[in-house]
């Protein structure tokens, strides 16, 4: 990333270049494509095509955090991708949810509360890259507001009490962060 960011700054918002870089199939070129693309020109089909080609967590996360979260299609892609059986597409659904929880400052708490059942449904997916993204999205939702913290922490506690070891891991890790007194104090200051 340290080498790619200066290059990306020189070619920001260049959709044609992003497409050409993506088509090379080279990992670093694809990350650069994500960094230079113009979110206003990204289509739902492009998002689906690129998500289907994800083969690493870093490419998936960079695409979600740096590009896809800034498109108009976030709301439809989160649940669609989260329900997809392909490992990195499902990860993309939850990485996109985590990114939206951070970036969508004006989104209503209800929008995120409505996605907690999606997290609960997939918290038992034992694939490492999926379970970490599920956990990440739960923690990010819980850090948005006091109200969402209560709801996310409640879900995390239920998951931590599960007999399923993956659900238990997701829950315990989220409980640790969401119940941190420093975190709660920051939320109350907002």
Overview of this structure, please?
This protein is mainly alpha-helical and 190 residues long. The protein folds into two domains: 41 residues, no CATH class; 136 residues, Leucine-rich Repeat Variant. The protein has 13 helices and no strands.
CATH level-3 fold name of the largest domain: Leucine-rich Repeat Variant
The portion of residues assigned to helices is: over 70%
Distance between the termini: 32 Å
Structural class by helix and strand composition: mainly alpha
Main beta sheet strand tally, sense and closure: none
What CATH architecture label of the largest domain applies?
Answer: Alpha Horseshoe
Strand content: under 5%
Full CATH superfamily name of the largest domain: Leucine-rich Repeat Variant
Order of helices and strands: HHHHHHHHHHHHH
Radius of gyration: 17 Å
In total, the number of strands is 0
Number of domains: 2
Task: Describe the protein's topology.
Layout: H1 4-10, H2 15-23, H3 27-36, H4 44-53, H5 57-67, H6 74-82, H7 87-103, H8 109-113, H9 116-122, H10 128-142, H11 146-160, H12 165-178, H13 181-189
Q: Quick summary of this structure?
A:
With 190 residues, the protein is mostly helical.
Which key terms come to mind for this protein?
13 helices, Leucine-rich Repeat Variant, 2 domains, about 190 residues, mainly alpha
